[in-house]
Amino acid sequence: MVIAVKSETNHADNQTVSVIEEFRTVYADAVAPCDTEAAWIEASAKRQLNWQAKYRITLNDAARCYAAIKEGYNAYQPNMIADLQKAFPDCGIEVTPAREYSVAIYLHVPDKDGLRQRVEKFIHDKFKADSISWQRDGALRVWWD
Questions:
Q1: How many independent structural domains does the chain possess?
Q2: Which of 39, 48, 116, 122 is deepest in the core (most CB within 10 A)?
Q3: pTM (2 decimals)?
Q4: Tens digit of pLDDT for each residue in 50-97?
């Protein structure tokens, strides 16, 4: 029984590592220093402009991913997801990282004790997102242009 739990944990860890690695590739033009034309060409060849991760990750792991995006990527700032995580620690929020030509994130917020309303209000108040909307699957989509 202990082996099965460890195996499931390793599987989840592998999924998280996979998402983080994919994120770095998808956002290659935003996370890598592109201080030369050659670096920009290399990063733009790797990046993907339309992507959604196959797996959800924790809000804490998402904060680490999104912090890697350099400042000034449209209205998105690298501390935003970390600020959300600090405001709502241990609330069970999961994240599907995404890129929709610009920075995007899907937040899977448990529907309990008014948490969804509090998270949405926090995002409206603190993020400078161009689009904040609840999706049919219950995820809160946040997108910066």
A1: 1
A2: 116
A3: 0.87
A4: 999 999 999 999 999 999 987 767 789 989 999 999 999 999 999 999
